[in-house]
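[Automated response] Your request has been received and processed.

Submitted sequence:
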Amino acid sequence: MGAVSGIVAAVAGLATAQLAAAADRPEAAPVTAVGGAVVDLTPVAVREWAIRLFGTSDKLVLGLGILVVLAVVAVGTGLLAVRHLSAAIAVTGAFGLVGALAALSRPEASWRDALPSLVGALVSAGVLYLLVTAGKRTRPAGGASGGAPSGSGSMDRRGFGRLVVAVLAASAGVGLGARRLGAHGSADATASRARFLLPRPTVPAPPEPAGADLRVPGLGPFLTPNQDFYRVDTALVVPRVDADTWQLRIHGEGVARPLTLDLRELLARPVVEHDITLTCVSNEVGGPYAGNARWLGVRLGDLLREAGVRPPSQGGPADQLVARSVDGMTIGTPVEAVMDGRAALLAVGMNGRPLPFAHGFPVRMVVPGLYGYVSACKWLTELRLTTFAAYDAYWVRRSWAQQAQIKTQARIDTPRPYADLSPGPVAVAGVAWAQHRGIERVEVRVDGAAWQEARLGASDGVDTWRQWVWPWEATAGPHTLEVRATDGTGAVQTGARTGTVPDGATGWHAVDVRVRALGGGLPAGADRQ
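Generated structure:
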């Protein structure tokens, strides 16, 4: 009875808190707020381990983990309530306080963000009191001996069960109401995206070069489909921003003419289209967190010049551009980089479609040549000019470097690790990137032998990856394939292995495969590992 009471009380409290959050700010819901606080407090090494292990499902795993912990605590609190009801109610209140403090610690939080957790704790405590008090009066069905004495105020076990079902049904109704209210709250944003028509680019991107996509089986397309584009961020709830009410503020040191623009005003400026490969700093050697897309937007450098900003090389006082998202995330980008002529964009389109919500609708930053954590702010709402000496953005306060140029990398996409291959011709293929420098050469070697030059796909400029393929005459036995790239400056990718922290991983990607003998198995005595 105690365990059931604890679980049911927790469900009722969470449902109520979710409803309260949906009515004001979904990010204030207890699980979301606590999850965000956990992300902030997690050591870098643990966070990187989670990304390696769970990939883009890390947020789902975190949310489920929080719910499991809550369930265990709920059972324990219910058992405690059977003997010490006041102590159990105090524990419930303490957990509500933890949720409230977590919500208040989030960027852009106000005092109202504490209310969902506090209201949820109050409801949970009330339900716990109701169920435990009723449970203590429960007698066996039919009045059999051994239970609480029958009489006024007592109920049988079926009555207690009906009470539990009634509370769960009410909680389900509250949860459904929270979901509908949340959906209604985001309906304006969804409708604004559906109405949004991408402007025709003043400077369109040229067609994808013939031969850029090598169309090798096992190798992905040259342009990454939106639904397959990687997503690595801290948002447990994807912000859904109404494009009709969105605004961007540009201000700070060296801004002679501060600007506040809505989407229509932003897009009244020349709109350009450019193919750019993005890469996450958490991408390990050979990792999946790189993607190539055709972006549509306004040149960021031109917008800053319109505001009177000068880069440091021209005497400007600010060397850092701090971008802020609607959820409070801050990303610091070198002013020099966004004003040196590269295609730094405030993007509104991705592969011919409005930005997906998960990738920053209505406006995000894209800066070729820099890792995403110092350039690719999503759900953009503010640009502030300052200095690196005066301000550390979110990731810099968590052991990452202030500035980080993307390192030259090559990746083997096919064959896959530990593939079991037939002897004979095998296409070894993948992608290589060195954004804003370009790729000049890719080389492959087998079992540490001499490097062999691969055939490159056609170049789409220095800001995108290049596909490559190398024909290998595979022979029986276990083999290790390695790849390295040379960038457009002639610098050869280093083989020294380093981790992702503080400014990106280095090293050659290697893939172990085995090739069957003509008879169907490995040669006698061959290592099968």
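Summary generated for your ticket: The longest helix spans residues 157-195. Residues 143-152, 524-529 have pLDDT under 50 and may be disordered.
If you did not submit this request, please reply to this message.
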